[in-house]
Amino acid sequence: MNATFLFVVIVLLAAMGYWLGRARALAVAGGKGRVLHSLPSQHGALVALWAAVPAVIALLAWTLLVPEGQRAVNPWLRVALVVATAGAGLWLALQRVRARQRARNHVEAVIRLLLLLASAVAILTTVGIVLSLLFESLRFFALVPPHEFLLGLDWAPQTAIRADQIGQSGSFGAVPVFVGTLLIAFIAMAVATPVGLMAAIWMAEYAGERVRATVKPVLEILAGVPTVVYGFFAALTVASIVRRAGESIGLEVASESALAAGLVMGIMILPFVASISDDVIRAVPVSLRHGSMALGATHSETVRRVIVPAALPGIVGGVLLGVSRAIGETMIVVMAAGLSANLTANPFAAVTTVTVQIVGLLTGDQEFDSAKTLSAFALGLVLFFVTLALNVLALQIVRRYREAYD
Amino acid sequence: MATSATSTRARVAATLKRRHRSEFLFRAFGLAAIALSLLALATLFIDIVWRARTAFVQTTITLEVFLDESIIDPEGKRDPAELRRSDTQTPIRAALRERFPEVTNQGQRRELYALLSGSAPFLLASRLVREPELIGQRIKVDLLASDDVDMLMKGHISRDLPPEQRQINDRQIGWVDAMVAAGEVRQPFNAGFFTRGDSRDPTTAGVLGAIVGSALTLLVTLALSFPLAIAAAVYLEEFAPDNRWTYLIEININNLAAVPSIVFGLLGLAVFLNFFGLPRSAPLVGGMVLSLMTLPVIIIAARAAIAAVPPSIREAAMGVGASPVQVVFHHVVPLALPGILTGTIIGMARALGETAPLLMIGMVAFIVDTPKGFTDAASVLPVQIFLWADSPERAFVERTAAATLVLLGFLVVMNATAVYLRRRFEVRY
Predict the structure, then answer these.
(1) Which among A124, A322, B134, B214 is least buried, having the fewest CB atoms inside 10 angstroms?
(2) Are the Cβ atoms of B408 and A271 closer than 8 angstroms?
(3) Selection from B217, B215, B228 nearest residue B344 by Cα
């Protein structure tokens, strides 16, 4: 008698309730449907609800309230409870079927409640994210003080698994990880911002309708490529190109250089920046363009001095959203960036990022009371709030500085 | 007056050349940016297709093997379970020695045996399970070559390298060449790539397990996110009062769409696995995590589709006596359905390509068997790509690229379906 079976029983009883309720309503109407306030099917649905809802609540209450030890005493007790609740609900509801009963209003109230609950899933998800990250992070900060985590310069999360192991006490200064993340994000944005913006300007200002109609969807393909594919491309192709190019001009390049990961991440973010910039540039009213050109400005002068300044809040917002993506991007850096935390700003060196560390810390052994695994949640907390702040900031900028034309 | 006009004109004329040059440069920069983006896209695809091109054939070596019953099935019972574990390696090795009788040295024989894939005996054994009548006969069998021979034949191991830098020595290359000359080395279509699961041995590694895992995971995602997204979108567009609660829900949906995917993985790990104790590596949990991620995407698309249904439809339905719920479910949602489906397919395509959150919930484990249910340990296509990309063997590179092509193929089909739906059913009011 598992819960799945009981669930099927409840569904069957509800279906029976629907059929009985509908038949009952038809009988009450005596063949004259218009004496009924609600449709027979709505009466049926109400009876079905009365059969199912109390029974599900009873099942949940049993699972939550009856302690583990006593459940085994009599497994049939649960079955009896559920069936009795469903049966009683069904019978009571059947008795109440009347011509003037407002079955439709009751059923629709329940439907509206369900719709509300469905939209509340978004809130539940956010609450779940915040609570789970906070809860595990608090356990981490009980082991490692927050200032050491946020300001320490040494990141070596390998802790001893057994007490008798020597050394490897682990240190959790996350600054090198943050710096690595920012370095790669900076490289990515240094690629994505100018190229994306210029591409958007060209598409919005210079390209003909037909060229634009082909180029724009092709660019959007770049945004649809899974990040694991970019990661493969970065690790295998771009990394070796970067290394060879660096060595040919006499530079020492790590095989997992920040530059390779950053370049490919820039390609990934590029269509995103281009698409948002294109939208905001096209939203600038034509009258501004015409005004500027009537004063004798060339097309590029109009773009640089009139259109881009007018679209700037939107562009800045898009770039900030791009930064937020770069910081949260995982697969490219997991596959193409390093695991060891070096505190450096050299793009040819191997650095690590927050997301690489989270993956590295949580895909090995699973010990949920060690500082090593818990530190991943602290990193996740920082990641969540930084990206959240960037998103909110981007929306604020767009909203506050948007020029209201016409 | 005249002088100032001429001086203005003179100033304009003096700078005009420079201004036109900067106009030309600006335009060239824009074109260069577009060209650079398109070049990046082309490089990405050409690189992957080029690397994958050799993965669709697989090198085999034809040998005449005597399937000695006294070795393979000494008791003669033809029991399938016994046959599956039977010793097929001894007859295969005997066949190799027979093919190259001049090799007598023990070390050289080991090199000879290494020409064949370590999985070749298992494949022969499972063939004998299907065709037990072959036992006792002397037959020609196509046996999988080792990954090194495969790489040599496909040109991924250069013969020009000094011998100590390649995994295959000159003697072995000699044997391979002898068999090529005798027509005993073939490269048939690599069907195993599509019919087998993961393997540590690159010659037998396939994507079927990952495809099934992806299908199961997406099924869970779809079953959870589609009804929830429609319900949420209907509520927000049709019933929600204009108050703080609604505003809070809207803010949450927009923010969730921008939360890094790995954070959803942390949520799944902390809540679904550690708190509710659901099984690790299971498509069920993977689908749940992905549905939380795709929900905002589908909700936003569904809201746009519902908002596009004109008010006249609602008013007409109300006018003939429909209740608000009937208006929505009998008229508005069916009319908005093509738009909702388009959004759903795009959301599913995103979920199919997602890797990071699934690593958090343990879908990264090495799994050979094709998953049979929602709670079996499984992997998915993108995670399979990640795992293979991490493998040191040279032969996994082409398979990683081929798996990427399979993934991209699925994405192309899904997105094309979405575009088709939009074109076919889009109604402009």
Answers:
(1) A124
(2) no
(3) B228
Asked which of B164, B190, B216 is the last residue of a domain, the reply is B190
Whether residue B3 lies inside any domain: the answer is: no
| A window 201-240, beta carbon within 8 A of B | 201-203, 205-207, 215, 218-219, 221-222, 224-233, 235-237
pTM attached to this predicted model = 0.89
**Count of domains in chain B?**
2
Q: How far is A252 from chain B (nearest CA, A)?
A: 23
Task: Please state, in angstroms and rounded to a whole number, the distance separating the CA atoms of residues A46 and A53.
Answer: 10
* Structural domains of chain A sorted by starting position, each given as residue range(s) with its CATH number in brackets: 3-126 (no CATH), 171-400 (1.10.3720.10)
Say if B26 falls within a structural domain: no
**Residues B77 and B170 grouped into a single domain:** yes
**Whether residue B93 is found in the same domain as residue B229:** no
Q: What is the percent of chain B with per-residue pLDDT over 90, rounded to a whole number?
A: 55
Q: Which residue has the tokens 């699973």?
A: A366
The domain in which residue B272 lies consists of 208-425
Cα within 13 Å of Cα(B316), Cβ side: 8
> What are the pLDDT digits (tens) for B379-407?
999 999 999 998 888 889 999 999 999 99
Q: What is the ipTM of this complex?
A: 0.90
Mean pLDDT computed over B408-420: 92
Query: Which of these, A129, A254, A270, lies nearest to A180 by C-alpha position?
Result: A254
Kindly report the nearest CA distance between residue B217 and chain A, in angstroms. 17
Low-confidence ranges of chain A (pLDDT < 50): 166-167
Asked whether A149 and A174 are in contact (CB, 8 A), the reply is yes
B155 and B297 fall within a common domain: no
